[in-house]
Design a protein that fits this description.
Layout lengths: L1 E7 L7 H11 L4 E7 L5 H6 L8 E4 L13 E2 L1 H6 L4 E5 L2 E5 L2 H12 L9 E5 L3 H12 L4 E5 L4 H10 L3 E3 L5 H5 L4 E4 L23 E4 L8 H8 L4 E2 L1 H17 L7 H8 L5
Parallel strand pairs: 1-2, 1-3, 4-6, 7-8, 7-10, 8-9, 10-11, 11-12
Antiparallel strand pairs: 3-5, 5-6
Bound molecules: NADP nicotinamide-adenine-dinucleotide phosphate.
NADP nicotinamide-adenine-dinucleotide phosphate binds next to helix 5 and helix 9.
Length: 275
Amino acid sequence: MKKVCVIGWPIAHSRSPIIHNYWLKHYGLEGLYERREVKPEELPEFLTNLKAHGYVGCNVTIPHKIEALKYVDHTDEVVRHMGSLNTIWYAGDKRHATSSDGDGFYLNLEASVPNLNLKNKRAIVLGAGGSAKAIIERLLRAGMAEIAVQNRTPAKIAELNSIFGKQIKMLHPDHFVSESKTASLLVNCTSQGMKGQPELEIDLSALPTDAVVADLVYVPLETRLLRAAKARGLPCAGGLGMLLHQGTIGFEKWFGVKPVVTQELYNLVASDIPP
Ligand code: NAP
């Protein structure tokens, strides 16, 4: 039986086992996906001997996404751009790694917004942390012309500039409304709006009527940002859909089946999320 785990510290909160074990059952595959608490000092031994621990691969979450790079044999271009990984699988005896957040985000965007067309358009990204980096990498790959980034700590935008080049512009909050007039996409990559965190205060009134609004936060399922966007009739993409779609990438590597994100799976995971 093939076994996969998600490693992190702490790890009790991870909903990944619900998702992958649903697909294993759905496709009649013999396998198991489990949580493994791995402390930082245990990481080198655990990843080096992943197979001996009984796993054909794993997901990697906080705080190991960067450190884990030292214990894989092959990384793809996404990982090299991002400087972090979240998915490991074996090809023979070699450990390969990717980061699925960007592709998961984009797959969810395509599934949520009919006739999505972002080529040569502008996006506004709120936040400049790990997820913002993944989303920016993917949006540039999709052919977007410019990404305006607004962040509480502006210095972090300079780092994005040095990685991705001049298509990344710094956006001052005072200019948000005027800049949003020509944005085709707004993405919240901050933790604002998440349960227990400060609310995201943002004025959507100047966004074009066909601009897409996406939020990575999925606790609560419908954030204030998404509610405001829906009230304006704007197409939306939520954080839970992204989580489910990014899971499809690892599942296919480990089990050889590209799983489908169904409404039934969405409802199952949603039922585990506090209102
Ligand atoms: P991160 O690397 O820690 O970055 C956090 C970002 O949020 C930074 O830009 C930070 O600004 C900003 N921020 C935090 N608190 C803030 C506040 N009070 N006011 C203004 N800005 C604030 O985290 P991450 O990995 O990018 O994750 C960001 C969010 O995305 C989290 O809520 C996470 O759960 C969610 N996420 C969802 C998925 C999914 O599958 N749906 C995947 C990945 C992440 P500074 O730079 O100034 O600190």
